[in-house]
Design goal:
The structure is a homotetramer. By secondary structure, chain A is α/β, with parallel strands linked by helices. Chain A has nine helices and 13 strands. Chains A and D meet through β11 and β13 of A and β11 and β13 of D.
Chain lengths: 301, 301, 301, 301
């Protein structure tokens, strides 16, 4: 018996939140935003399930609001809710908003290399129903994890990227991804993406860096951590920008280490933090809990 | 030079949040609450600075909302805001609300015994301006900390409570407290309060218990923790009810220990957790971040 | 391609520590133990790689020492080292000792039920070479994980245990286990083992309990945690004794939760803590880092 | 009543560990060190209370051992124990050792500026008997904390250090310190010490840096942390070297923050971590638990 056969009928499907939507409002703070949004939702009999609001400066700063609401037959009502919100926003608010039907999971592609711990952890959490995503595909520059990925019922594509010229690999990536995914996760994918690729892809990319950024930027952070003699090591999930390891941080965590830990021990212990941090970042992004603003994130976790 | 002289001109006063108010709405969930509250605030040109909302069950559960808002000349407008909120709530909502001017710090009495770490930490944080409270008095069943408390410019009252009959002490406590304080903090006060006292006092009482409740209820939790061989010890801040160590939990934290730690080590290390946990609970209570519901707390921290 | 084929050539074998041994000395404290043990090892040209020592009371308490040492051709020398240690101990020390060749991994059977997170985590870690163990078999009272377990190249045995009478299942367990394993891990195995079974099995059994013991003993700890309104939830790995949830604690950890977390959320978040705590306990036990003493453990981690 | 009067009879004296000594052995690893040291101690009827050993490389690396032992009339025996250890080490070991009578607390000078949280925390802990040190003096470039420090019965010296030329202040520091202290603690002392001063002082200096080093080296780390949008902030206790913020790290810790925290919030929350981390570093250093090796520390905590 193979896993490929066994997996499907055990797999929990990701929990789609039927008849619920998320609404992100983001822009210039002013009096009356909460009331205006609330009035539109109330008019449509939408029940607010959770609401988080934040202003970075009460005097003309930036405003952020995440609302989750539910109502019967949401799909039918959603276009009119959107139109009414648009009309309301046009009454002098300087705000953008995003409305999303939570019954439709976001589609993701996971990029991996040889290290499997982050990849397997995401696939396994997805199978358990912990992540409201559809894993559209896994792309790796190494073939090693093909069998395991496919045993979860997920397409695996091997795109080698040896050598200095990544343009062929990136073209292949774009062909696979464009139109098919809502975001990309780099699950310890050990290749640098070009600025051009990031721009043309046009969807958010989440990376897990194996250090507590901004400490130990670049390659080999565990060796650098050992060299510096730190007493904690960490991991950082962040959105990818053209500037390596400089994008907006979504989540971080650390674990205590000691002089007894070798670089290999740091890698082993850090791997646990990496998978935890990455899975939280993916879940929060999937649930529209993360708002990017300048080079920061507002996380309504 | 004595501390009693030196303290005043160094003391930061607790930061009163001028022209801001907190609004707690709590009751039966229904569509339209956020909109109704938002509309009243918008009508009064009140700018919402932060808003947290939670429903424990989207289908007719309990609703909790904490809003902080600001506007010029708040004190003048507050009575009318309250009247308008009352009128709105009377339109069929089953909700209570509490509106509080944040420029007026809550008044607290701190009860202590011999152990000084929680008491001193609260007084010191207060002096630094970290806690928006007025420390009206310290009451202790031991005289030991009198000098240190008074050096912070705070009245100290010694109320002995030896013997089985606490009624004399409790009568004295009530005489000191009634009308003078908005809540009481038991900062490692090693005496049990009678149900009658709690009832007659009529304001919230926050206790710090030196274990991770519900583990090690009752006296001597560190000795019990050593006996059981736990690998973490903790502390719990909770509201006091008639049932010892059973009241609603506000905050908890833990610290790692090992077989090498003696009971005295556990006490020393636990003391650090106690003071941190208690100070967080006091701050959150002072800022109206804690809502009691049945035997639980909703904490919008 | 199936995982069962792919796994072997990717699988890192558990790192056997060639030419190294662990020595645990445990008994009544006295002057001269470290010197006596050190002299025997020095005589045999054994280099001490790490040494941890602990006495629970300097005046006639219990003594615990873990030493890891290496030398060339250890296997040849080990019998004489053991004989010399025995002779030394017989000179009036009241001590037991255990000497173990670290190139031979301990053999373990993992018991599971339907929940797979602890089981899979151990198998993944084992495949990555993180755990110096040989997984001899997995035994489950449910057939669900058979395919996945076998894809790791590990035997899976389904032993149903429905009904009140567990004697048939336990007899089957003993037939599978006796002589084949050095310890047993209950990886969220949801059945109670009889005292008779524990006694006849005669090897250590490690269990993971889904609460921060001694809080929430028994069934349904997450529901109890929600009911009590705790702000942290935890997991506890302990040796199994006849008294349910009362055996010596090996490791514990916690994670912060809030009023927003449902019982299902607590289960999901607790699962992460469970697998981390269990894997640490298994690794420490495998490396002879845990010494049982009365109802406690000394952990030289 | 002043604190200065009240303090003495409440003050627990730092617990001197009568008739116990610590022995640090540090040098080139070789077979037989533990046995040789153990034999000397056993010859003198010294009972080993705790022993930690570490080698950074089993093949000719560096060796570190901390031993605490007790015997009656230790003071009488100590010179002969030292002579015997010296003789033993001279038999071909490449090792240094330090033997210290634990009944004599180390003498420390604490340097502070305006921020008082680390200073006060050390003084409180010292008064409670948590730190086996003698606080010889407090030196500050601001007079603000004079009254409070003296209320603990500790000398306070105000040494201004305004302006670019610190040589006058440093000369004054040396005059106060030389011969009087065994180490110095910079408890948020906001001045840079010159390499010449560090060299002439000749005793270890412990600093608390208000970031998780090596992140946010230099001034204003909380502002930098806010700017970078990190989700955890930390503090680092390290030995001071000529290279600012680059000395060997003794201890680090972090606390979780969010987008809601202003720079002032980060300072407030970081202050709690700073005082905890610094107090652990001071305690460990006082108990000879920290061994410097190259730019690292071995901490037997």
């Amino acid at each position: 018996m193979t896993i490929a056969q066994a997996a499907p009928h055990r797999a929990a499907s990701p929990t789609p939140l039927a008849d619920h939507a998320s609404l992100i409002v983001h822009g210039r703070d002013r009096t009356g935003i909460v009331a205006a949004v609330g009035a539109v939702l109330a008019k449509h009999q939408a029940n607010i399930v959770s609401l988080d609001q934040y202003s970075d400066n009460p005097h003309g700063g930036a405003f952020f609001q995440r609302t989750v609401f539910g109502r019967d037959n949401l799909k039918v009502a959603l276009p009119q809710i959107e139109a009414d919100l648009r009309a309301e926003m046009d009454k002098g608010f300087e705000l953008d908003f995003t409305l999303r039907d939570l019954s439709i999971p976001k589609r993701v592609a996971i990029f991996a290399s040889k290290a499997e711990h982050c990849l397997l952890d995401l696939l396994w959490r997805h199978r358990r129903g912990e992540l409201p995503i559809t894993v559209a595909m896994v792309i790796s520059n190494h073939p090693d994890t093909a069998g395991e990925v496919r045993s979860f019922g997920i397409p695996f594509f091997h795109v080698p990227s040896a050598g200095a010229d990544k343009s062929g690999a990136e073209a292949e990536h774009l062909r696979l991804l464009q139109g098919n995914v809502d975001f990309v996760v780099l699950a310890r994918y050990m290749q640098i993406l070009s600025g051009e690729f990031i721009g043309r892809l046009g969807v958010p990319i989440i990376n897990i860096h194996h250090s507590f950024l901004p400490a130990f930027i670049g390659a080999g952070p565990y060796a650098k951590a050992k060299e510096r003699g730190v007493k904690l090591i960490g991991a950082t999930a962040h959105y990818v920008t053209e500037d390596l390891d400089e994008g907006p941080i979504i989540e971080q965590d650390v674990v205590r280490v000691s002089h007894r830990d070798t670089v290999a021990d740091l890698q082993r212990r850090g791997a646990d933090v990496e998978r935890d941090v990455l899975s939280r970042a993916v879940r929060w992004h999937s649930e529209d809990r993360v708002i990017r603003h300048e080079n920061h994130t507002i996380v309504f976790a």
